[in-house]
TrEMBL record:
Species this chain originates from: Pelagicoccus albus
Annotated PcRGLX/YetA-like central beta-sandwich domain residues: 136-509
Domain PcRGLX/YetA-like C-terminal alpha/alpha toroid positions: 515-921
Protein name stated in the entry: Tat pathway signal sequence domain protein
Lineage: Bacteria, Pseudomonadati, Verrucomicrobiota, Opitutia, Puniceicoccales
Pfam families: PcRGLX_1st, PcRGLX_2nd, PcRGLX_3rd
Length: 925
């Protein structure tokens, strides 16, 4: 029988002080035994890590990663080394990325030089760091910065259009004039005027300086021929000791007018000096998988008169050819009649096909060379004495992209890695419909569909709210703008001393397309408690717990397959997933208002991150990482009217008028930052620290009847406060600045000290003082959204880190009452209180209260609710139905009952309930 919380038990819970409460998670006996295994019994100050994709071990040219530490274990100024499973020790460059409240390290970032050997696992060990054999040297020469890795030397100017002036290897000039280029069209229609632009550097900062890794941060604008400056960019250059590679991270922000500025090309360009004989020059492009297209600028194979096989084979292999005077005269005397090929282009217009063509020079026809499906986005141009290999991350996934080589048959070839291909046509970012009459006051009489009259709302807001009821789209004129959204691209440039081997090209292509990543073992992250205490390791020790694990795995794999089958790729789209399915068309609702792109609605990214944390699954990591990279850039405004806000789900990522802190919150991105040390993600974490100030400029409740609008700044206790608290918490752990802790503890006292606590649905808020004031004369209310955007997670972390008893009591009261009987609810909250829907999402906070207070009856309530809703009431079938032929455009696998909201919320509940109350869940019927 399903148990409910009694009045007696509620009083017992509400009266507990923080000091009397047992530590969360004491019931995890099985998991604790797992951690006690010999393989996990590491000494303090040691964390075990491994490559994310084990089969890719060792293929890197310098890398960075994050490591978690339990509270109080490692002090702030500690040094570290890396130890292989075989006991070899390597140097590490270390920096702090987060601290505990006692000043000890919570997260550290580490950089490794090139050349790490293969090993089953590695261990980060505190203690004096091993010596770096060839440390990076950073110096200044006039107005330029010089970086010497030991293999290459680069010159970075402090002003002008170039971002990298020169790069040498072994004294040979290999790369010059690295810059950004692009073009803007006046209209998306054919024949519109086009204006070119180049990068204009504004500042250069040495963000990190050796001995293993150097990071330079460059900021600037793009300057058109007319002098207009727009599209602000941030570009980082990464150098590693002993490496011949430069890693490049580029972000631009769209600050134009989508009705006038149509981006028609954007790319990274540099030139490569060509000094070898024409027949010793080579161009290569990657294709599918390990496929490689490789040809010489002046080919000597296939001619009517041929050189000896050993000479032709040498050219095919990219080796130096013997002195031409040793060749047969019948060939050598006629080479001037053989065309040389100067221009090469690989164009990837979509995720399913690329074309490759070449020509002798401008003014002559392009010749089709070949086609393929998915290029890895890697290329090479140079000669037998050296050149430059180049690659773009997620090349075909971020289509339309392009790789161009020009003038390879001259003294200076030019390479352009097109982030947005000029062959694709101008980018059209205008809103996808005309407002449908929702922008006007009143309505036009007589406008309806097939004799059905409209509902005649009196105001535009009323019409917009009515529109939500049919398409789930929250429309408002002027709000569906891309002004302020961003996009990031990563590149790798490798300076070579010879034409690379074919097998090396395949390996480098894979590295640039999906950079290898070192990650901590799940057990290490769990033990450190760095992401709170509401999750645990997989624990399939009962029938119910096995069912949880089976469905979690099935859901992850289903969405991974949907990304591929539904082609969720593209310049603005890759990384996001769709919101809701249309079983009649057998497609996701890509064109129906708020049912289209998910924009991390209901914490889909948090679900994916916790899937990775507990399992180490590379599929979960790569999906979460792609979502993070998309959401942090595209779904958030980085400048302009909505800076600091994110956009709710829509057909266009920025289309919804609900601009929300729940989308831009650090809560969804701190996982990626701490695990990878990614500086762009770190920028966005910092960017939104005080996004709460935007609530004073744009009231998120402005459209709801009866809500205060004018002259008051309103904060929702669920969606807004959870986001804001996460922003402050992340800033506090990253910087240690006491003001963030003061803001957090002050807000905790404001909520905990109010009569209704978390049953105050909204608070008046002062962005200057960070003061929350409960509304007067209101009845207790609860919204289902309050727990769906990470509030339970951040509350548990704040309770874990701060001693504010009234906040803990208020949160426990909320968690406990949500699972209470109707009798208790009426007695405690009055007869008008309505329990929020979605008990499956709420059972995890009931489980939290049960674990915190060691209440078996409350745990049984949470567990039984989870089982009843998820398995008995909905009966999900963990299988798909195949559709192909004329029913669909492409063969697909369909599970009609799946929604992204449901998957995310069920996934989080499953992870958290199974971790908090495994015994109760195992016993539920």
């Amino acid at each position: 029988m399903k148990k409910s919380v009694t009045r007696r038990n509620f009083v017992k819970l509400a009266g507990l002080s923080a000091a009397a409460m047992p530590a969360l998670g004491n019931a995890k006996g099985v998991v604790d035994r797992l951690l006690a295994k010999e393989e996990y019994k590491l000494s303090p100050g040691v964390v075990r890590i491994s490559w994310l994709e084990k089969e890719r071990v060792g293929n890197h040219f310098g890398t960075a990663f994050g490591v978690p530490w339990p509270r109080g274990q490692v002090q702030h100024e500690s040094e570290f080394s890396l130890r292989t499973a075989e006991g070899r020790v390597f140097p590490l460059q270390t920096w702090s990325t987060a601290m505990w409240d006692d000043g000890s390290l919570k997260w550290t970032g580490h950089a490794l030089p090139a050349g790490l050997p293969k090993s089953k696992f590695y261990e980060v060990v505190s203690g004096k760091s091993a010596k770096v054999d060839s440390p990076i040297v950073v110096s200044r020469s006039g107005s330029a910065i010089l970086v010497d890795t030991g293999l290459i030397k680069a010159e970075i100017p402090s002003e002008g259009s170039n971002l990298v002036s020169k790069v040498w290897r072994n004294g040979r000039l290999s790369l010059v004039d690295g810059c950004l280029v692009g073009s803007r069209s006046e209209s998306p229609e054919p024949g519109a005027g086009v204006e070119s632009f180049n990068s204009e550097l504004k500042s250069v900062e040495i963000e990190q300086e050796g001995p293993i890794r150097c990071v330079l941060k460059l900021e600037g604008m793009h300057r058109e021929e007319s002098g207009r400056e727009w599209l602000p960019f941030t570009l980082r250059l990464y150098f590693f000791s002993g490496s011949d590679e430069i890693k490049v991270s580029h972000t631009f922000v769209f600050d134009g007018d989508e009705n006038e500025d149509f981006l028609s090309g954007l790319g990274l360009r540099f030139s490569v000096p060509m000094t070898d004989q024409l027949y010793d020059r080579h161009v290569r492009f990657s294709g599918d998988g390990e496929g490689l297209w490789s040809e010489a600028v002046l080919g000597i194979t296939g001619l009517r008169r041929q050189a000896p096989d050993e000479i032709m084979n040498a050219q095919i292999d990219g080796k130096p050819l013997p002195d031409i005077r040793t060749w047969p005269e019948i060939v050598s005397s006629r080479l001037h009649w053989v065309p040389t090929w100067g221009d090469f282009s690989l164009f990837q217009p979509n995720s399913n096909g690329f074309s490759l063509r070449k020509r002798t020079k401008a003014g002559h026809a392009w010749i089709n060379a070949d086609q393929g499906k998915r290029s890895q986005g890697f290329g090479y141009v140079g000669g037998v004495s050296g050149g430059v290999a180049f690659g773009m991350r997620d090349f075909w996934k971020l289509h339309p992209t392009q790789l161009d080589v020009r003038n390879a048959n001259t003294d200076m070839s030019e390479v352009t890695l097109w982030i947005y291909s000029p062959q694709a046509g101008p980018m059209d970012l205008r809103f996808y419909h005309d407002g449908l009459g929702m922008e006007m006051e009143g309505v036009v009489p007589g406008v309806g569909f097939e004799g059905v009259e409209p509902s005649m709302p009196e105001t535009a807001y009323a019409k917009q709210l009515d529109g939500v009821n049919i398409t789930y789209e929250d429309y408002e004129p002027g709000f569906g703008t891309p002004h302020g959204v961003a996009r990031s691209s990563d590149f790798q440039l490798k300076i070579t001393s010879a034409v690379p081997e074919r097998k090396d090209c395949a390996a480098w292509a894979q590295e640039s397309f999906t950079p290898p990543q070192l990650v901590p073992y799940p057990e290490e992250i769990y033990k450190a408690r760095v992401f709170g205490t509401m999750w645990g390791l997989p624990n399939p020790t009962s029938v119910n717990l096995k069912m949880v694990e089976k469905r979690l795995d099935w859901s992850l794999n289903y969405y991974a397959d949907q990304v591929e089958q539904r082609h969720w790729y593209g310049f603005w789209d890759y990384g996001d997933i769709m919101h809701t399915y249309d079983e009649f068309r057998h497609v996701w609702r890509y064109d129906v208002g708020g049912f289209a792109w998910d924009n991390s609605e209901l914490s889909s990214d948090m679900w994916l991150w916790f899937m990775f944390l507990r399992s180490g699954d590379p599929t979960a990591f790569r999906m979460a990482e792609a979502m993070n990279r998309h959401n942090r850039d595209v779904d958030i405004y980085h400048l302009g009217r909505f800076a600091g806000f994110g956009s709710r789900h829509n057909v266009m990522h920025w289309g919804c008028s609900a601009k929300q802190l729940r989308i831009s919150t650090c809560m969804n991105r701190r996982f990626h930052y701490f695990l990878t040390t990614d500086e762009r993600t770190g920028d966005v974490l910092k960017e939104v620290t005080e996004a709460d100030r935007m609530l004073d400029a744009l009231n998120p409740l402005r459209k709801l009847p009866g809500e205060p609008i004018k002259g008051e700044c309103i904060m929702s206790v669920g969606t807004d406060y959870g986001a804001i608290a996460s922003n402050w918490f992340t800033a506090w752990e990253r910087t240690g600045d006491p003001k963030y802790r003061e803001w957090l503890e002050g807000s905790m006292r404001d909520i905990g000290g109010s009569e209704l606590g978390f049953f105050n649905l909204t608070f008046k808020y002062d962005p200057e003082t960070k003061k929350l004031t409960p509304a007067e004369g209101v009845e207790p209310r609860a919204s289902h959204l309050s727990v769906m955007f990470g509030l339970p997670t951040i509350c548990s972390e704040m309770i874990q880190n701060f001693d504010v008893p009234e906040f803990e009591a208020a949160w426990l009261r909320y968690c406990q009452l949500i699972g209470a009987s109707e009798e208790v609810l009426e007695k405690e909250l009055g007869p008008n209180f309505k329990r929020p829907p979605f008990p499956d999402a709420h059972c995890r906070i009931v489980a939290y209260a049960a674990a915190q207070t060691d209440d078996e009856e409350l745990a049984a309530t949470a567990a039984q609710t989870f089982v009843d809703v998820q398995w008995k009431n909905r009966m999900p079938v963990l299988s798909t139905e195949r559709y192909e032929g004329p029913d669909v455009l492409n063969p697909i696998d369909e599970a009609r009952w799946v929604t992204t909201n449901g998957t995310s919320q069920w996934g989080l509940a499953a992870i958290q309930v199974s971790a908090l109350i495994p015994e109760a869940l195992s016993s539920a019927k």
